[in-house]
Amino acid sequence: MAAANTPNPAPDQVPPAQIEAKAETIAVGKAQMALRQLIPLAIAAGFFIGLGGLYFTLFMSDAAMGFAASRFAGGVVFSLGLALVVICGAELFTGNALMVAAKLSRKITAGQMLANWFWVWVFNFVGALILVFLVYFANAQSLGNLGAAMMRIAAGKMTQPWVTLFFKGILCNVLVCLGVWVAFASRTVVDKAVGVILPVSAFVALGFEHCVANMYFLPMGLTLALTGFPVPQGVDASVFTLGSMLFNLSAVTLGNIAGGAMIGIVYWFAFGRKAS
What's the N-to-C CA distance of the chain in angstroms? Predict the structure, then answer.
């Protein structure tokens, strides 16, 4: 008889339909958030993603590792950034592309969604720049070949065609938003931390483009170039310009919006459309 009175345990994850509903509820909270709360949380997200980028760079600086091994290992450690965002709480521009589901259900307006995206993008950039400042003055670039790797990563991103960057941005944020979706489905801290690893490591290992990560990578490389750090062999010093950085961010930002919106739209059609 005692066993019959035992309540059923909660399922291991939030069911898919409830994930979509949860995503809409979270989006409403984001749309209504006051700037005094939004700004520090957006700064934190830019800083967190930059930390993941810094950790990734360490593996890219080790020439002894094979190509696939270094990309995989770097991708795994880069997931630190999104894990901090979803566990500690922060406002990340790329993840907020999922707000489109709440817009389709008419729970938020287009103006609210775009205002959130604008402020979060701006202050993600501020957070990333704060990390660039701290890393530079901590002289982290002198650690092994870290400085050279920083410049190679930035140069590689500054020399790609706009259309290529745009589509890499789409593919990146499909994976990032799937990682966020997994975090919405998770019930524990461990679930969230582990759940983001494969989607995030996939986009990093495959060389896709994340605008908030680039808010750290590109200014870091540009800072080193402007302060006289030795340019690595095979890297063209002329690519390190403000224009090249903004060129990259314009393409990747739009691609990230498109990729994240794709995930929100697909799951809204599957689970949210009837309710709306």
Answer: 43
| Beta strand ranges found along the chain (DSSP E) | none
What DSSP assignment string belongs to 102-133? HHHTTSS-HHHHHHHHHHHHHHHHHHHHHHHH
Structure-block tokens of residue 85? 């965002």
Spatial separation of the C-alpha atoms in residues 99 and 117, rounded to whole Å: 9
pLDDT confidence of 8, banded at 50, 70, 90? low
Distance, CA of 218 to CA of 243 (rounded, Å): 11
Judge contact between 110 and 29, C-beta under 8 A.
Answer: no
Residue (of 87, 126, 111) closest to 32 by Cα position: 111
For residue 274, the 8-state DSSP code is: T
- Side chain identity at 180, as an amino acid letter? V
Instruction: List pLDDT tens digits, range 88-100.
Output: 999 999 999 999 9
Looking at residue 107, what DSSP letter applies?
Answer: S
Q: Is the pTM of this model over 0.70?
A: yes
Nearest to 130 by CA among 54, 60, 61, 30: 54
The one-letter code for the residue type at 188 is T
Spatial contact of 96 and 116, defined as CB atoms under 8 Å apart? yes
Alpha-carbon Rg of the chain, whole angstroms? Answer: 20
Predicted pLDDT of residue 2: 45
d(CA 210, CA 176): 9
pLDDT at position 273, please?
A: 77
**Helix and strand numbers, DSSP H then E, in the chain:** 12, 0
What distance in Å separates the CA atoms of residue 105 and residue 26, rounded to the nearest whole number? 13
Cα atoms in the 13 Å half-sphere on the side-chain side of 54: 23
